[in-house]
Amino acid sequence: MANDEDDAAGQPPAKIDHNSPYFLGPQDRPGDSITPVRLNGDNYDNWANAIRLALRARRKYVFVDGTITKPKPPCTEDDWITIHSMLVSWILNTISPDVKNTLSMYDNAQALWDDLRERFSVVDGPKLHQVKTDLARCTQAKGMSIGMYYAKLKILWDELNNHEPIIECQCGRCTCNVGKQHEKRRADERFHQFLMGLNAESFGPIRSQLLTQVPLPTLNRAYQNTVQEERVRGMTAGSETPDILGFAVKTDGRAYGRGTKIDKTGLVCSYCKYTGHDVNSCFELKGYPDWWGDRPRADTKTAGRGKGIPKGTGRDKSMAKAHAAVADTILPQEPAACDKTAGTPLPGFSPEQWQALITAFGNPQSSSGRMAGPSIEEADWNG
């Protein structure tokens, strides 16, 4: 008997299978940071979700959620202490120093996990109400892409899962697949939430098309179709030529209603001996133009322009000053050519299009018709 006990005491401990949650490998160290998310007091939901994923990946979450509360063979009491010490170290490594200083000493990972949840987890009622309110108000703003809009919804849906998890059978004897039914109902609800928030102006037709399908497509299929529609609209918008709403004409130094002032102050007329013009533009020699206001009256209708008018008569000395005034006036230059041979003032317009534009606005009357009056050969209209 004594020999049997000595033999049992001398046997090596049973090995723990590497797939067992009790297993700790050489890669598991107390200083490891299992997630980059740090608990700072305001981000408990995100932090808890990150820790949950990291521990499940290592098959260790069962020690903090209450699934395993005491050691089972082949795990010994020493193994149990080792595992919880490792889990406590991992959790503390993901907590900010300010929060860590407020914590007590723990040697059990489940006790630490429950304490953090009670202190930092927001009450489900107000938090759940806020998440559902944000979901109801989540819409695709003008100019927002489908990807950005879907990302906003996805964040809210993931947060809602933390407060309203999928209903699953607890007894283990359910044959009606209540979990699958609840999951299908939630998927349909999210499908409608996605369509409701779409921009009606841009995606109204594709939304109607998706809603009329029987059975309803999945959320992923709806997302794929709307993204394809967005890309098609983008290609179409890039190939379309925008309507011409207005235009401006800029010519090479010339414009309607503008001209170049010609300085003739140094000229002397050889006919009337006055300055400000030359003999080629002398009104006393050539005759006064029709647009000149108080011009000399002709004695007869047969008198030629400028003939039969004595030099210096018909006007006082102020008449001579008119030559200088006329000489200093701005002589209008011809506008930019817009006939068929010279092209069009606007680039991109064909001569036919430019002519049609002129015809649509109507041709203005000629200036000669508006400024018509009695010539020097005619009797004055005023009698």
UniProtKB/TrEMBL annotation:
Residues 26-72 form the Retrotransposon Copia-like N-terminal domain. Pfam families: Retrotran_gag_3. This is Retrotransposon Copia-like N-terminal domain-containing protein. InterPro entries: Copia-like_N (IPR029472). It comes from the Eukaryota. It comes from Cuscuta europaea. Residues 1-32, 299-318, 362-383 are annotated as: Disordered.
